[in-house]
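Exercise 7 asks you to align residues with tokens for two separate proteins.
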Amino acid sequence: MVSTTQKDDATWYRCEECGLLFDSQTDAEMHEENCDSDDDTPSYLQ
């Protein structure tokens, strides 16, 4: 499930699996469907 947060006077959408922020709810939902967060670090940082 995607949650919303306010930052820099804007609404951001956060992946509840890994915590990554998106400026588009659609992008956040698409990411979350494919999110592979077996640990706390997103796979693109490994």
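Second protein for Exercise 7:
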Amino acid sequence: MEPYGFCVNISQSPGLWARCPGVQWLGHQTKKRPSYFHKEFLSTGKLDPHYPKVCGHRGNVLDIKWNPFDDFEIASASEDATIKIWDIPKQLLSRNLTAYRKELVCHSRRVGLVEWHPTAANILLSAGYDYKVMVWNLDTKESVIMSPVKTIDCHQDVILSMSFNTNGSLLATTCKDRKIRVLDPRAGTILQEASYKGHRANKVLFLGNLKKLLSTGTSRWNNRQMALWDQDNLSVPLTEEDLDGSSGVLFPFYDADTNMLYVVGKGDGNIRYYEVSADKPHLNYLTEYRSYYPQKGIGVMPKRGLDVSTCEIFRFYKLITTKSLIEPVSMIVPRRSESYQEDIYPPTAGAQPSLTAREWLSGMNKEPLLVSLRPGSELLSPRPLPPERPLSNPMAPTSPHLWDQTGKVVAEDGEGPYSLLEEKAPRWAAEHRLEEKKTWLTNGFDIFECPPPKTENELLQMFYRQQEEIRRLRELVTQREVQAKQLELEIKNLRMSSEWF
């Protein structure tokens, strides 16, 4: 049997999407609030039938997931009962990719689901048709991993969906036996189990830090239905809402930053969206996006890949098989101001893990490291984790400098103390050089490598890119002015403190 393959879904990765070829774009716009849909003219065209694929499985590929901490790594699950980890070249594929980095072999039947841990690096979960959920540690040198670190064997039928909570300490699953379970993924024990007969759940989703679960499925009358649950008590749902009598599976997507819930039905042309609140009524229907073209599948762009200059808060990619195209649908909050909107872009989960695989497996839990979506901003949470090392001396200092009693930094090499302002100077210079280098990039492209426009459409595209670059540079200048004022205040405070002593 020839190996099966799949095309790389660039839309899941912000780092790759800027160079995604062959995407057909459609535009829709409406004046419905609180958000409307944005029309963009970027790279369009038809994908080459012989476009390079990722090949290597001996059966159909059932699920793929991008690594949330690596824009160039994919996990794929297949009917051949294996999971493969792929390294995607940064210059994208020039030929079929058949060499995988790791292969996970332990399931006895086909693997239907894979899920990356939201905060720990190199932790992957898989669910197969052998009714088992397996926890894998990819932080090993082995290319073929034969045994997982944990096997959860508590389901009585095929597992339909999996969802982590925010810090990855809990795992929710839906099963064909019509039960929703909340599990401890490290211990493999069931913490909560729903035995409610009035709701047959297909998909389940943790709703951020609200300590609630949302499930989509069907009612006893075969109507499509949503149900909201308390994660600590799954005996009875908090609320139920019947949607319609269609048969397509409902896929929920939740944006914890804006408390927005999007519900997409397979085979539908519309996308419903709600506002979720901790108080009753928990689900507040807002409106829906409507299209004549039904979606066969749908993908979501991570928050760090959104266009904040246009107040875009969510972006879908609809797979429309009837037209052989991918259609982006952007949710945009209408604002007249061109400046960065702080209220609709709170700090969000970044692309750096907050735990190593060993720390998470040992029982540690940490919230995701947060970043600001403001252009040019830095990590808001503590510094990235150092390379994993044996914890031989847990009391040893991890910082490269020590503080003496006078409040100054003392270098470990014994060269003597230096002031905090002197420590910041080289870092400021390095950041300035980095930002200066970034200014040569426009939408992910080197402006000196872009060919001159040949048609009127290409000229318009170049013009719009330049306008976005001008807006970004203005914001960068504003940030530099604020930082300069902060440095002036620090100098003034240091002078005043030296006068006092």
